[in-house]
Task: structure prediction
Amino acid sequence: MASNLSNKLRGILDKVRSKGRLSEKDIDEAMQEIRIALLEADVNFKVVKNFVLNCRKRCVGAEVMESLTPGQNVVKIVLEELTNLLGSDDSRMVLPQNTPNTIMLVGLQGSGKTTAAVKLAYYLKEKGRSPLLAACDVYRPAAADQLETLGNEIGIPTYRGDGKNPVNIARQSVSEAKQTMRDVVIIDTAGRLHVDEDMMAEAKAIKDAINPDQVFMVVDAMTGQDATNVVQAFAEKVDFDGVIMSKMDGDARGGAALSVREVTGKPIKFVSNGEKPDSLEEFHPDRMAKRILGMGDVVSLIENAEKAVSDEMAEEEAERLARAELTMDDFIMMNRQIHKMGGASKFISALPGGDKALENGTVQTDFFDRAEIMVNSMTVEERRKPAIINGSRRARIAKGAGVEVSEVNQLISKFNETRKMLKKFQSVQQQATKSNSRKKPKKGGGKSRKAQRRAAKQQNKMGGMGANIGMGMGLGGVRGMGAGISAKDLKKLQEMMEKDQGK
Result:
């Protein structure tokens, strides 16, 4: 999202960080450049004005001017203000206990409501719910057919009713959900090419008829600053609860996402980053702010990694990796896991500095695929014991994989580098474990054995994924991590990387 804005902001902050001391003039120049970058990204001009004023007010204070690392403090302030702009409060969707719950989607035609409805249904299905889609767009040709077809692809039924009266279809879909034991109804309403009274009246009539638990407005991220005018109009007439930003993977300048929360007070609930049903993600303001400033999003990366690996595979893998017993087959396993997480580009872009590395061409995103071909050219013994791969074997492997010998050398070099790193982390983890075991738990404050086993299981799982991510970082020229590393440690890793970027 907003790659141009992200590049410009990173460049501005890099110049600030490069200076040992900052004058008020330096800060004014940086704020002016930030202002121009935001306006070029089509952010609402009032939002830009308030954002720059807040940043400047804090930056010229003693917190920055009298500190030993003023550049780092400026970055910290811009990050905090950007997070506040996107919505610092918790924006997760919360549904009441009564069933069936009802969720209504509104928005302009072409904003992506129908696909958003299906993605939201898939999201809820993954959470253990049983959604029902309701086709209340009776005006757009084949709208109901599109909804039903997409719903069938993910195993979710669609209620179409008589296909004539949207209000009756919405009301009857709730009754249908009760009869078929569906606990969530997602209402896909009609849109228009522009805001008009008939559309607003119909949306309000549907809302009054079913009294939905949540009303989401779907906003096309490509519309930029114009989106705020549309959102304001809907907020006045329909009073929705939150926003779903669609088409975030397109050539969006970021203006809509950065303006909506500040202008309307309505939080962004979800963002859509692709066409697939699983591309809808919960919106986290702090994570998005870090991504825009090039600080990566390791936390989301770990969450996606956990989804890609089963508990049994993670535990088995973690136990083996804890002994630093890597094999070449791990490259194949990792490559498949990365594809499940959205591919190497998405994987690397979530790392601090990853977007910049991808743009500069310093990271070869197809290395994993080429590595798998090379590993498939090895014998079973060579995969298990890479140390036996001598010059003649490397030449044979390169010929079989259709690559240069230098690429086989690079693969083996990265493999050895990652294995050494795992051993180092294994040693550090063992020392930390011994240190913690010596500490006497406070009275009544210790964990139950069941809780300890659950924590150990999670630690093993994160350890296995940590090793895989470490290997991926090593291939991308970034330092990795090893087995036995916990989710808390992974969050600390992101903080360390952000600190390194500021040096």
User: Anything to note?
Assistant: The CA atoms of residues 364 and 476 lie 7 Å apart. Residues 452-491 have pLDDT under 50 and may be disordered. The domain at 101-288 is CATH 3.40.50.300 (Rossmann fold). The longest strand covers residues 214-220.
